[in-house]
Amino acid sequence: MPExxxxxxxxxxxxxxxxxxxxxxxxxxxxxxxxxxxxELTKQVVGGGRSIINDxxxxxxxxxxxxFEIRGDDHGYRLIDVGSTNGTYVGDLRIKDVYLRxxxxxxxxxxxxxxxxxxxxxxIELSAKDRFHSVLGSSVKMREMFATLEKVxxxxxxxxxxxxxGTGKELVARGIHDASARRNKPFVVLDCGAIxxxxxxxxxxxxxxxxxxxxxxxxxxxxxxxxxxxIFLDEIGELDIGLQPKLLRVLENRELKRVGGxxxxxxxxxxxxxxxxxxxxxxxxxxxxEDLYFRLSVIHVENPPLRDRKEDIPMLVHHxxxxxxxxxxxxxxxxxxxxxxxxxxxxPGNVRELRNVVERAASLSDGPTITRAxxxxxxxxxxxxVSEPSAAAASTASGGGWDPKLLEPGVTFKEAKQExxxxxxxxxxxxxxxxxxxxxxxxxxxxxxxxxxxxxLLKRHKLTST
Length: 466
Hints:
By secondary structure, this protein is of the alpha/beta class.
């Protein structure tokens, strides 16, 4: 680790973090079209490139649309190349990720920039609360996000929520809705990756009778259904490039036409979008419109992965156990070695994976205390995401042989067969998700299924986020 001052420091009061300080910095452009310009950096993450979506826009034609990032953290400032075409160079070395020292110069395209930290600081607020509606976390990263959400939610600003699969992006969106003046109006969810391409337009905007084969009546789309409330566009990165201009027009004009209709319909929707994909890279690749990204990311909230906030795991585990205990009408607790094992896992499936593992272990426990042995029995792969099948199905599907309960009097052939099939499906799907870190597209491709079919199976086995 370089010997330099941290970019971000945390102030504590009585052992609890109260605020974070970001040391300001600046970039001086030494050569290139913008030579002589100085840009002050006052955010933890700033991006540079030729696109208007960047904090540091450059007109150099040898620079990619989104070319580099500078991130301030507890160790200093990091310069990160974000998949540029021509590379980012420090001296003669092409770099991917490097910590900057004061006075370091780097080159992107034909533009050379010098990095210089400043003495002034920017205060980064932390929420006093350990939750934002249904989203839990006492870590600094989560309380920083909560502070932003508490400010943004009462407004009508469009919000883009990014984060890995399973981090709880929909819960964040629901929290934004519930904390707004629209809380008593509809909250409509559309998964842009779950609707067949030929139906997505009518699903979003509605259709008139006879607009296409099968349109037997008039249908209000998601935007009309959410009128006065909030529409949550999940997996926005999956939206077909051909439909993106139509969505952009709706967002800009706040009006739409149903498929097959001529009438302009006014709408009043708060828009929250989410994705686990890098939309900036998609803008670079030409698969996501620059102007749509700009419109969606008025406020950008990044939901951190669970591996970066492991101190939140005990809180989450006890919350999930309390939910199970309430359903069963009994108390549940967890052994120390079991919690240690949970804290030691990297959680590629994030909070969704943790919930599924805890609930599965609770179902297999013989008593009120969840033990390490229950955790092993409840996993697929290495603590993979699984649902809650019966013990008989679990034993059969995991290779434990035929469970005698499946052959007891009164169990029909159809029931026993379905039990075995259910067991196979939950183990297969759990391990499939685990191998692909919860990515639906890769999982569907590996399994030879459509995304829609896979999502329906996941919903059936309660493997979807809540």
